[in-house]
TrEMBL record:
<keyword id="KW-0732">Signal</keyword>
<keyword id="KW-0812">Transmembrane</keyword>
<keyword id="KW-0677">Repeat</keyword>
<dbReference type="GO" id="GO:0016020">
    <property type="term" value="C:membrane"/>
</dbReference>
<keyword id="KW-0433">Leucine-rich repeat</keyword>
<dbReference type="InterPro" id="IPR032675">
    <property type="entry name" value="LRR_dom_sf"/>
</dbReference>
<protein>
    <recommendedName>
        <fullName>Leucine-rich repeat-containing N-terminal plant-type domain-containing protein</fullName>
    </recommendedName>
</protein>
<keyword id="KW-1133">Transmembrane helix</keyword>
<keyword id="KW-0675">Receptor</keyword>
<keyword id="KW-0472">Membrane</keyword>
<keyword id="KW-0325">Glycoprotein</keyword>
Amino acid sequence: DEKRVFRDDNGNYLDVCEWEGITCNHDGDITKVDWTHHTVILEGEANLDFLPLSVKQVIITGLEVSITLDPNRLPPGISEVRLWYIDVHAIQFDKLPSSILHLNTDESDLYGNFDTKALPRGMLYLSMFDNDISGTVEWTALPPEIQEFRMYGNSLVGTADLSHLPTTLRVLEISGNKFHGTICLTSLPDALESLRIYSNRLTGDVQFGKVYPNLRSFEASCNTFSGSIHPEHMQITEVNLDKNSFTGRIDFSLFQREGNSSLRLSHNQFHGSVLLADLPPSLYRFVIDRNRFDGSLNMIDLPRGIPLVSADYNHFSGSLRLNNLTERRLSELHLRYNSFCGSLDLSQLPRTLRHLDLSQNGFSASVSLNALPDGMKTLNLSQNPLQIDMDILELPASLISLDISDTVFRGRVRRGTLNIKVLSESNAGGEVELSLLIRLI
């Protein structure tokens, strides 16, 4: 809105130092341009080739603006350039002013060939995720004091030699590229807090060799890593190893005991038993789908504070006791496609439970759905030899999906009571056998 940004209420043009998002020094020289979708509404084109020499910071984010940027013509003393979610086009790294400490061009349709040696030697932060930057990274030529290197979602290739990174590096995010080969993680900087290397073509074992004191997040999913989990992996607050080829047993008692934590190990070949009592009480996400874990699951041992447990497509068996769980904070429980059997008691589920999937197991006998938690949204009991006892009026008003297909339905469906879609029905009332999918809309 040009009138609101550059003019006063009477339509008169404002002095440049009075424009929204413009900061000037005592001499009236512009030192900062801060135009975001929170401060101004602008669209069209912006040419940054003619910025005043006094400008130290340029922040333009989230606007419908196409940027013309010749790095060679940026003010020689500029220290910060942030151009997020806009149309920047090409960049030449060898023309960046040596004064730049912070460069951010996330999601800006930017393309060009990455030149590690051309980066300003004093650079501290580089973030260019979700662009189309190509080429390789010369890992030994990174700026010596860089703290954050975020280049995920580009087209970078080559190997990832992480054995000689700058000691100051706190964040390394190179996911969603085309890096290949094995990777060495035994000489990472002690300052490192976040390491994200998922969605590449990396292979081999993943060994740290030691516990890194500050590493809180390690995401390596969607590669072809193999081998086993090592004790040092379990000292990290957030671990994501989904969709690899890891094997072996896991001692969950070694996992980080303090702080919010997440453990994702799905789509691997882990096996052995899972003792829920060994999980850290601070865990907020426990995902082990599509592995080969077996044995029983004693739900009463689940730490009270864990909100999400997902163990679909494993080999768990035996009975599953879900009673006496009312004080748990569990919000989602997914145990689809295992070999659980016996009866089910759903009358004492956690009050916080919103999603429950027990489909494709071997549960049998009669189960009542008349005492589900008030806030439950989805329930899937399909493909179990169960006898379902249910009165539609007793279901939670919050329920949006109920799948009891391939079970024996015992109860009444009262037409006109709720807006219900019955895909396959045989007699509305009494004892019937049917393949039934009900969605409460």
